[in-house]
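does this look right to u?? xanthosine-5'-monophosphate version
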Amino acid sequence: KILILDFGSQYTQLIARRVREAHVYCELHPHDMDIAEIRAFAPKGIILSGGPCSVYDPGAPSFDERLLELGVPVLGICYGMHVMARHFGGEVSAAGKREFGHAELEQTDSTGSLFDGFFVEAKSPVWMSHGDHVSKLPPGFTVAAATANAPVAAIQDPARQLYGVQFHPEVNHTPRGEILIDTFVRKICGCHGHWTPGQIIEDAVARIREMVGTDQVILGLSGGVDSSVAAALIHRAIGEQLTCVFVDTGLLRLGEGDQVMATFAENMGVKVLRVDAEERFLSALVDVEDPEQKRKIIGNLFITIFEEAAGKLEDARWLAQGTIYPDVIESAGGKTGKAQNIKSHHNVGGLPEKMKLALLEPLRELFKDEVRALGDELGLPRQMVWRHPFPGPGLGVRILGKIKKEYADILRQADAIYIEELFQSGWYDKVSQAFAVFLPVRSVGVMGDGRTYENVVALRAVETKDFMTASWAPLPYDLLARISTRIINEVRGVNRVVYDISSKPPSTIEWE
Ligand code: XMP
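got this back:
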């Protein structure tokens, strides 16, 4: 396994993903991780990430330099290379020519193996982002590669297995960067590529069995990817000892409740307790308009209902959750507030202590794409595994203002038509998230010979990598036309469809 120390680069998670894509297990830890912990972790290699600081800034992130003397291979990226160079007696200074973006890399010394297989031609494109450079090599090191503006674009001391690169091999703009990372972790560090979905499942199943023994486990199933994969995985491990609780809030998508039951209860034989709580949710939300208040009411009621259901399972000792790695990672700047925020509804807060439940989180170490690969391997339906994200409060934040059953029914139908057309045109997988929004705004229309005075449905589709920023998707006009015609013809209560052309920021993805 590989240890990645995070010095605050915005790309650190990408390093971890590239290592995992080489089927090697890795963990991401803050730069100041304790040396005793590092020894206990026993990495076969260490990667030091980039970071926004200069090594000679007063507040530059520090680390325990003894890790460079452990005798395990180290790859320093950008800032990581600078700290390594300084430690071994080199010098770092502000570069005369700063370099950002695309550059052409050329190998200058082929004795080390870091660039094995990297160059198909004499030069290879890389992504640079730096203001500092190594101005004096540490003793024992050579320059392994250079670009026009960075004469020291990579350094190495193959005898001690120390490597540094000034560019970012982890980003997509360095097209062959994944080869470099693969070479480092497998060839130089000697890691085996065991981190495959099949192997992850096998290990997780063994671990869950060992942890849980003969205890009973409960899990809140939402129908989303994470809790679904967690349920399938835990079920594979302990079968009948798992009980899932599925709360139908009345704010789910068309047929969602039945789909969840069909997939888990009928096809997989998972015990699922379905709680139909539509009326309770709708009556708790009567006349509530404020989005934040709606979220709070939905979140709290969800927990109450989940607790009631869980309370009936007398001997449950464990609460399982579909927490995934990005929710857990502590970046150099502390936990990302956003991830915590978004998840506050899913993680059934307070329950573990109250019911004296221990937490079982079998996906804690996995990235979303790994969770999806696991879902496929566990035989979950493709459309469940590759579904767009759906917010915890569901349609509650897609019906603007006051929520009524009638509105939810209209929205469900419109949304289902929209998604069906996206599937049929091949656009569903091209966008990151798409959904319909109900606007309780009435406008005048004409249908046949009659005048109509009905509601508006807005369509939203965005492209994004991380959901922090997003751009609206350029759906083709003919597709939009077809969707609009179908919704207005097939859904009673809607006589106008509009397309949302706002990006995030300044808008958000959801409307509330
Ligand atoms: P916004 O609207 O903030 O959404 O741009 C970003 C992403 O987060 C999802 N989202 C939520 N997910 N509970 C969730 O589990 C929530 O309360 C929530 N609010 C927004 C949203 O669907 C998008 O993918």
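The mean pLDDT is 92. idk if thats expected tbh
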